[in-house]
Automatic annotation (TrEMBL):
Task performed by this protein: Required for translation of the mitochondrial OLI1 transcript coding for the mitochondrial ATP synthase subunit 9.
Keyword Disulfide bond in record: no
Subcellular location: Mitochondrion
Originating species: Maudiozyma humilis (Sour dough yeast)
Alphabetic keyword roster: Mitochondrion, Transit peptide, Translation regulation
Keyword Nucleotide-binding applies: no
UniProt region (Disordered), positions on chain: 54-83
Gene Ontology cellular component list: mitochondrion
One GO term of the biological process aspect: regulation of translation
UniProt lineage: Eukaryota, Fungi, Dikarya, Ascomycota, Saccharomycotina
Name of the protein described by the UniProt record: ATPase expression protein 2, mitochondrial
InterPro entries, A to Z: ATPase_expression_mit
Length: 487
């Protein structure tokens, strides 16, 4: 049953078909599992998966986040009555549904997930024991509700989970990685996607962040570094953020040039030899843009310091996307951005783009195509009517697509045409017809693209001549009226 629903939702946009009877299918499947749960052997069937018997999540390798689930999946998934296998299937398909893309009209999806959790909660209410799969599923529900902006529901699931075992977030070495992350996201402001979109999203447990900072530095763990940085940024605790980043990676986010580790004898000084991962550097950039009126300037200082200390820092496309998108954000508070703010944000986005290009050129790396970066830069270039930078961006960012022309999708094609037509329109307006045709010759993706662009040049040329003729006629009429009145 669950596999049928997953296939159905994968092939049809759930947000566009709210009348799909998904909850009915869910009920049918969960009731079949519930029948097994009524047997007295249910708890015994999960006894091999109890959290208490698993290796501590807090001691797992940083690459194995959510170690409790990893441990249980190493164990046999089937028992003599097959209950464990059924429950594992439930968990697997819950993962698949939770990872589905949510459309603009998400009402149907929200109702479905609410129904899934109600059924799930009712199904497992007969036992207060917490096994690894249940721990995993409840964290999946929390992160999914958070992604949908359902803060109240996410809080309810978190409270249900902590009632079962509060040591998941407060238990020192027995902390569970996924649960701590969800706690930071829900109660400590670490979920940056809600910073600008939901005014009700506030920090309710700042003390937990302070305690976790010291715990992470003392133990040398890095499982929730990214969430700590976002939480400190949301709380505007820049001095603590500066101390955390300096002690851990030897980098400053407050005082340019202060890159030496502190002298605390807490065992954390050796951490400064490790380069921060891409998700951490992206988080720092986003926080700096949030905290400072001209965050891009602070980001540039941090970027120079990062590259200076770690020349081989793995700055992936997510980092550059964050730098360009956040730098180009004209206004971060209530109200409407001024013209000056728009102008500054546009220049910041272009500065970030130039830094991205220079970084790749100096390392002989091909600039990766990223739709969000290309779209944001087009918004800036169109607003500024900047032909020179538009040609530079197009011939650099889109170059990688010319090696995989058959794989360009519809959304990419639409953006390609926007860039191409903008460039050609400006060239025709400047009467640089030779350059326009040379651009078409060199930068057409295929024969059809070339044909469309050649017709576009012809249309723009005729349109320009028509406007010029109309203007000449209007000038002649105006002259005749003036001369007529004189004579």
């Amino acid at each position: 049953m669950w596999w049928r629903i997953v296939q159905l939702v994968h092939t049809q946009d759930i947000s566009e078909h709210p009348d799909l009877h998904i909850t009915m299918i869910i009920r049918s499947h969960t009731r079949s599992i519930a029948a097994h749960f009524r047997l007295g052997s249910v708890v015994r069937s999960f006894s091999s998966c109890e959290v208490a018997s698993l290796p501590s999540a807090g001691k797992a390798s940083p690459s194995k986040r959510g170690g409790a689930l990893d441990a249980v999946m190493q164990r046999p998934r089937s028992t003599s009555n097959g209950i464990s296998s059924k429950y594992a299937d439930f968990s697997t398909h819950l993962d698949q549904i939770a990872n589905m893309k949510i459309g603009a009209n998400k009402t149907g999806f929200i109702k479905t997930m609410d129904q899934v959790y109600r059924e799930y909660r009712s199904l497992l209410s007969q036992s207060e024991s917490l096994n690894a799969l249940r721990l995993h599923d409840m964290n999946v529900f929390i992160s999914t509700f958070l992604r949908m902006g359902r803060l109240k529901r996410a809080h309810e699931v978190l409270e249900d989970l902590l009632r079962l075992d509060g040591t998941l977030v407060q238990g020192g070495a027995s902390r569970d990685v996924a649960t701590v992350r969800n706690y930071l996201n829900l109660r400590c402001g670490a979920y940056h996607r809600l910073w600008y979109s939901d005014r009700s999203y506030e920090v309710t447990d700042a003390a937990y962040v302070y305690e976790l900072v010291e715990y992470s530095l003392q133990r040398g763990v890095s499982w929730w570094d990214t969430e700590i940085i976002y939480a400190l940024g949301k709380m505007n605790r820049l001095e603590l953020l500066h101390s955390f980043v300096l002690r851990k990676w030897g980098l400053s986010v407050q005082t340019p040039g202060e890159t030496q580790p502190t002298t605390e004898t807490d065992g954390s000084a050796d951490l400064v030899n490790k380069c921060p991962p891409p998700e951490v550097t992206s988080a720092i950039v986003r926080v700096l843009c949030l905290a400072y009126a001209d965050g891009s300037m602070e980001c540039n200082k941090f970027l120079n310091e990062l590259i200076g200390r770690y020349p081989q820092a793995p700055l992936d496309v997510n980092f550059w996307r964050t730098l360009i998108m956040e730098g180009g954000r004209a206004h971060r508070g209530a109200g409407v951005a001024s013209k000056a703010e728009h102008a500054t944000s546009n220049e910041n986005a272009l500065d970030a783009w130039r830094a991205m290009k220079q970084w790749h050129v100096m390392r002989n790396r091909i600039l990766p195509f990223d739709y969000s970066i290309a779209q944001e830069l087009y918004r800036v270039l169109e607003h500024t009517n900047d032909l020179q930078n538009c040609v530079d961006v197009y011939t650099s960012v889109f170059a990688s697509l010319y090696t995989q022309r058959n794989e360009v999708d519809g959304k990419q094609w639409a953006l390609i045409y926007r860039y191409q037509k903008f460039i050609l329109r400006r060239l025709v307006n400047k009467q640089q017809y030779v350059k326009a045709r040379l651009f078409v010759s060199e930068w057409s993706l295929n024969a059809n693209n070339k044909h469309v662009l050649e017709r576009f040049i012809e249309h723009q040329t005729n349109l320009k001549k028509s406007k010029e003729a109309t203007q000449t006629y209007d000038d002649m009429v105006e002259d005749d009226m003036i001369l007529g009145s004189l004579w």
